[in-house]
Design brief:
Chain lengths: 413, 582
């Protein structure tokens, strides 16, 4: 049998990998855990990691800082003609214009000056620290989103509780709680177990499981097909409300997350990523490489939001990036590694229409090391302020070990 | 000359053949049929000696690469003969051969563009990429000097550049002149060669980094415009030498970036007019007495170089100098304590264990320091270390400790089955699907070198399928020679075949766990079909074209048919956990 099907049933969920010839056993195990939880819709936290470090000052620029034009002679945007005024203090990059509407509707909030208390300017360390939520601890190997998943307090109803739309599981989702990496949802029916990456599997155990699934049809029996996550919905998925996703890595990932939300498969924590933010050279101003990335981000998130209109009360989107970039532009029309950046939070319960955080001051005395936006909001305060109220989880030491700060108030519980 | 003490593999409990197999797995791309026994007979030590000081000539390899003329070319020759589709189109339009207003792949102009390229003897970068990957795989599978190729792969990855799009044009000479030429030489020479190569200078943006406005420069007046780019300076410290915890500050990053201002390239996009303009500018500078330094497409531009005094890691670099600033920084970094530790750690991860013993790392770092960064001597210290040989048995259930990367898997499978590799088009797709498209690692960290990055069910299924297809002769351009595994004898039963091939493909290992694991599989005729169906359909559906020249977009070959028992059993063994380890 070669048709591709996936079943949801009151007895559990099974995605049939018909080409493979069986249901991966961990799927069936997970699916049979708590069947009733399946149909109780839960809140979903969708995170977008902008790898490479987004220039927060290009994204959300002060409208009247006296130093900016001197520090960024080719990058600074004209407050009158180019920036989209947010609150009389800050203007949004024109390529982010889809965010401006959401901001005015009060659903999108900006937090400026976010970053890590540990002043590394290494992409790789800073990404790890942000993903583990344990800045400075290089031995940390579990992700904060995995801990958030564990803190939800109920067994996963399905293997889709925590999903990354990435080829390998990101550090954010590694840890005790089950989490999946799915590169492409369309492959799921064909490739499960192939498209899956379960956590904590050794090579040998993984092989035994995969080969076992390939050998036996046992997993297929006894499943009561009640509802289809059918071929049409995967292959010929039509976004609702005329939402148009960019054909980019991020657009594709968010489209698939929207599919999972609508399919009601138990998704609660989702992870997507977008690269290309490391704009050392020829960053551009209203057009150019930053503008292209920014347009992709805003158009992807806005399409996701439009597509999910029926579910907006359940979903919050949080963007994150490992650090910001130098306040002054460098010699090659770009910016180098800095400290604080800006992050976006989108949701109906978000304290939107507001730029949160300490006001920015760009005179050299106020800058860290005389060059970078200082971190005035610990990223953990933001993440806890979003995940805590939205997912209804504790935000203390269990979410961010060793952190004793207070979450910021950005999502109404 | 004093004879080195014997390699300590017997102390690690390894027989001659097990030691030979381990050496072939780690210091080569895996054993070829019968090779472990042959090396054991000849002596593991003598094989290791030859690998550490390989003969210059390799007629068999030369013959296999003879048609790839570009491998001997300079960067200038390559950049003037190979063009990206966009540049080819621009030139063809300029010459009036193709009408304006179309993209390079638009049906309206495709044939005319191709005809123009043929007439001008211009080749596409897609061809270059394919040829370069073929050369890499051919060397991995067929070179006698195996360790040199293993180390070339290691050091390329350490000093990674991404060959995305047109950036591939500088990669052939980068691999040949900056990397391969130095893998048994001094670390300082390797470091210096990467620092000057156009591939690195463009990848990490240094080629445009110039003295900030108002700073004194090494030639001419202080510039009114300008400014540094920190990208190379930072990665030089973080990734190439000291390591992220190597004790440098942000001020050091800036000082290093300033020391390298003016280290630039002559941009060559196959556009003769633009080239001439740059040359005219440089000639004018030179005629005014500027101390230009040129080396191929590398150029040190003294009028861009920040000549103010600097302090790097506490060392004062006096003002008023030129290219010496960068060279002094490289000296300082190459001789730094932290560099020895970083390199020792990385070598230990690659050759011994994902989480290497600190004692081993310390001993390798000592060897590095003692010999002033003699990389051949460090490798000798590594194979003389008991920990290297212990790693043959330190994985789960006495298996080897390391999991092969996708490229190591492909190369070792081709070697194990005695396959001749003549074409890589059938292998590019799986390599891409497994996450290791050659010369295409985007971040400066290169590809990961630990199992966690390569172990998940999807990648495993791709490996199983590729093993089955390779053994069945269904991978385009790679013909296996299964008779070589059994000396031409046909095993009498499926069970006998399993035992025979496990022994032949995994020499020096305990065959029992693998035989027991695979026995139910080889008795299940539907297994190969299921793997093939699942993986082939998945591959066929994979989105095309990783980048603009489409070379990774090859689709899978015809589905496998599992009639041939020997091929099926060999394929199953290639896909087994034991074969994924080295």
């Amino acid at each position: 049998m070669l048709s591709r099907r996936a079943f949801l049933s009151s007895g559990g969920l099974a995605l049939l990998a018909t080409g493979v010839g069986g249901v991966p056993s961990f799927l069936t195990r997970a699916a049979s855990a708590t069947p009733s939880a399946l149909f109780r819709r839960r809140k979903v936290l969708v995170t977008v990691f902008q790898r490479g470090a987004m220039d927060g000052l290009a994204a959300v620029q002060p409208l009247s800082d006296p130093h900016l034009a001197r520090l960024r002679p080719t990058l600074a945007l004209d407050p009158q003609r180019q920036l989209l005024d947010l609150d009389g203090r800050y203007g949004l990059h024109p390529a982010l214009s889809p965010f401006a509407d959401l901001y005015r509707e009060g659903r999108l909030g900006v937090v400026h000056g976010v970053g890590s208390p540990v002043a590394t300017r290494s992409h790789f360390d800073a990404q790890d620290f942000m993903e583990t939520g344990r800045p400075g601890d290089k031995r940390a190997d579990t992700g904060w989103l995995n801990r958030a998943t564990g803190l939800l307090g109920h067994e996963p109803a399905t293997p889709f509780q925590a999903v990354a739309l990435t080829p390998a599981l990101p550090l954010s989702l590694r840890g005790q709680a089950p989490a999946l990496a799915v590169a492409k949802l369309e492959d799921f029916g064909v490739l499960a177990p192939g498209a899956l990456a379960a956590t904590g599997e050794s090579l040998e155990a993984l092989y035994a499981e995969t080969a076992g699934d390939l050998l036996s049809d046992a997993g297929r029996e006894g499943l009561d097909a009640a509802r289809l996550l059918d071929e049409a919905r995967l292959d010929r998925y039509r976004p609702e409300n005329g939402a148009e996703y960019p054909r980019s890595e991020l657009g594709e990932s968010l489209r698939q997350i929207a599919q999972l939300v609508k399919a009601d498969v138990g998704l609660e924590v989702a992870f997507a990523e977008a690269g290309g933010w490391d704009t050392h050279a020829r960053q551009g101003s209203d057009t150019g490489s930053f503008a292209r990335r920014a347009a992709d981000l805003a158009r992807s998130v806005a399409a996701f939001w439009t597509d999910l209109e029926r579910f907006q009360d359940d979903v919050v989107v949080l963007t994150m990036t490992e650090f910001g970039r130098t306040v002054a532009e460098n010699g090659t029309g770009g910016t180098d590694h800095g400290r604080a950046s800006a992050m976006f939070v989108l949701g109906n319960a978000v304290c939107g229409g507001e730029v949160h955080g300490q006001p920015l001051a760009l005179d050299p005395d106020a800058l860290e090391d005389g060059r970078d936006l200082p971190v005035t909001t610990d990223f953990r305060a933001l993440f806890a302020g979003v995940a805590g109220p939205h997912l209804g989880i504790a935000t203390g030491d269990a979410l961010f070990p060793g952190w004793s700060g207070q979450p910021i108030e950005i999502v109404r519980s | 000359m004093r004879r080195a003490p014997p390699l300590p593999y017997a102390q690690a409990g390894l027989s001659d053949e097990a030691a030979a197999a381990h050496a072939l797995n780690r210091l080569a791309f895996g054993p070829r049929p019968g090779e472990a026994a042959e090396v054991a007979r000849r002596g593991v030590e003598s094989w290791v000696d030859e690998q550490l000081a390989p003969p210059a000539s390799d007629p068999d390899l030369d013959r296999r690469l003879a048609d790839l003329d570009l491998l001997a070319w300079t960067t200038e020759e390559i950049t003037s003969r190979y063009l990206t589709p966009a540049f080819a189109l621009r030139r063809a339009v300029a010459e009036g051969a193709v009408p304006e207003g179309y993209g390079p792949r638009d049906a309206e102009v495709r044939d005319r563009l191709r005809a123009w390229m043929d007439q001008r003897q211009i080749r596409s970068v897609a061809e270059l990429r394919r040829d370069l990957i073929r050369a890499k795989l051919t060397r991995a599978v067929h070179a006698r000097a195996q360790l040199r190729e293993v180390l070339t792969d290691f050091w390329f990855n350490h000093f990674n550049v991404d060959g995305r799009g047109g950036q591939i044009l500088t990669v052939p000479t980068y691999e040949r002149d900056a990397i391969r030429a130095h893998v048994f030489g001094r670390f300082r020479d390797l470091l210096g060669a990467t620092a000057r190569h156009p591939a690195m200078l463009t990848y990490l943006d240094n080629w445009q980094s110039r003295a900030p406005s108002g700073t004194p420069v090494a030639f001419g007046r202080a510039p009114r415009r300008g400014g540094i780019n920190e990208n190379y300076g930072r990665e030089l410290l973080e990734l190439h030498t000291l390591g992220v915890d190597g004790g440098y500050s942000q001020a050091d990053v800036v000082a290093v970036a300033r020391a390298f201002t003016g280290w630039s390239v002559i941009p060559n996009r196959g556009d003769p007019d633009a080239m001439e303009q740059v040359e005219t500018g440089l000639a004018r500078l030179e005629s005014r007495g500027a101390p230009l330094v040129r080396d191929g497409l590398f150029v040190f531009r003294p009028n861009w170089h920040d000549a103010a005094p600097k302090t790097v890691l506490g060392r004062a670099l006096p003002g008023g100098r030129g290219i010496e600033d960068g060279e002094d920084v490289l000296d300082l970094l190459a001789a730094h304590e932290a560099t020895a530790s970083l390199i020792a750690h990385k070598l230990a991860v690659r050759f011994v264990d994902d989480d290497p013993d600190e004692g081993l790392v310390g001993r390798l770092a000592d060897a590095f320091r003692r010999t002033d960064g003699d990389l051949g001597a460090v490798m000798r210290a590594l194979v003389a270390d008991r920990a290297f040989w212990d790693a043959a048995r330190s994985g789960p259930d006495g298996a080897p400790s390391k999991v092969k990367t996708p490229f190591e898997f492909v190369a070792s499978a081709a070697r194990a089955t005695g396959a001749d590799v003549e074409d890589v088009r059938g292998i590019l797709g799986p390599l891409r699907d497994m996450g290791e498209p050659p010369f295409h690692a985007e971040p400066p960290t290169g590809f990961p070198d630990h199992a966690a990055a390569w172990v998940n069910a999807g990648l495993l299924l791709t490996r199983m399928n590729l093993g089955l297809r390779l053994a069945a002769g269904r991978v385009r351009g790679a013909r296996p020679d299964l008779d070589a595994l059994t000396g031409g004898r046909q095993p009498e039963s499926v069970d006998a075949a399993l035992r025979t091939y496990v022994g032949a493909l995994l020499p020096g290992r305990d065959p029992e766990p693998t035989v027991a694991l695979l026995r139910p599989i080889v008795r299940e005729p539907a297994f190969a079909r299921r793997v093939a169906e699942a993986a082939t359909r998945a591959e066929a559906e994979t989105a095309p074209a990783l980048d603009d020249d489409g070379v990774f977009a090859e689709t899978a070959d015809a589905p496998l048919d599992a009639d041939d028992t020997a091929a099926f059993v060999v394929g199953v063994v290639l896909g087994s956990p034991a074969f994924q380890r080295q």
